[in-house]
Design goal:
Elements: H1 6-29, H2 40-54, H3 69-107, E1 113-116, E2 121-124, H4 125-140, H5 143-157, H6 171-181, H7 183-212, H8 218-237, H9 241-262
Antiparallel strand pairs: 1-2
Helix pairs in contact: 1-2, 1-3, 1-5, 3-4, 3-6, 3-7, 3-9, 5-9, 6-9, 7-8
């Protein structure tokens, strides 16, 4: 008669559950993978499938039951590790959103809002446009596969029993994550700088024209002109966006390695 002991059942459960939590945390926070258009059942199924593949290749699990205090603390640590990796790439996409905000404000489209299901709120229409291009580029450059590969590699560099919260030696990883978050403004401004500078010159030209010929009615002419110039420059910039997006994603993958190394 086939029988299973509690120790065997606990070993099988921990070998699957703890990697599953780390992988699911990444899928719940990473760009594209966490999109609201993807059903929750699909996300859980993908995390479970990856866990079934990864679990047999992992070293021995800690000797702790799942529902004990030590087991729950391990689950918390696995969630934080996966979420930290996903947030690194979210910061890269936040820089693209910031560029859209800068361009939209300069074009006079700051009031033109669309619902963003990824962020769960309204976003400037230019920001939505650039974010859609960034997501397509992320898939084309296999960014989602690189992210999953980097997560799987963390099971050897940051083992299951690692305590990334209480141990002071792991604080460097969190500092790297916070420091990388500061690049959102600089990267977004660098992406938006050509259009922002061109629109600034256009506004200066309109101001000079208003001083030279006040009867033109610059307030009626200025808004359509800045919008048309902005849309034209945005269209001209699209072919050059892909190399910039690839650089942003490469930097993000590099930051994932630094965060994991610090953890």
């Amino acid at each position: 008669m086939f029988s299973v002991t509690y120790a065997q059942l606990n070993g099988w459960l921990t070998a699957f559950l703890w990697p599953f939590v780390r992988i699911l945390a990444l899928i719940a926070t990473a760009p594209v993978l966490s999109h609201m258009a993807i059903p929750m059942r699909v996300k859980i199924a993908v995390a479970a499938f990856i866990s079934l593949i990864v679990a047999p290749t992992l070293p021995a699990m800690p000797q702790a039951t799942v529902f004990s205090a030590a087991g729950v603390w391990i689950i918390v640590n696995q969630f934080l590790i996966g979420a930290a990796i996903g947030m690194v790439m979210q910061i890269a996409f936040a820089a693209v959103d910031a560029a859209g905000e800068f361009i939209g404000q300069q074009m006079g489209l700051g009031f033109a809002m669309l619902y963003d299901p990824r962020a769960g709120g309204n976003a400037v229409v230019v920001s939505r446009y650039l974010n859609t291009l960034a997501m397509l580029a992320f898939l084309v450059f296999d960014g989602h596969l690189q992210l999953i590969s980097a997560l799987i590699a963390t099971f050897h560099s940051v083992p299951i029993e690692a305590n990334v919260v209480a141990a002071a030696s792991h604080a460097q990883g969190w500092r790297v994550l916070v420091g990388y978050g500061g690049s959102v403004f600089s990267t977004g401004l660098l992406l938006a700088l050509p259009i922002v500078a061109a629109l600034l010159i256009a506004n200066l030209a309109l101001g000079i024209l208003n001083r030279a010929a006040p009867q033109i009615g610059i307030f009626q002419v200025g808004f359509p002109v800045t919008m048309l110039v902005g849309l034209l420059l945005l269209q001209l910039m699209v072919p050059n966006l892909m190399p910039f997006f690839q650089r942003i994603f490469d930097v993000g993958i590099g930051e994932v390695g630094r965060v994991v190394g610090g953890l």
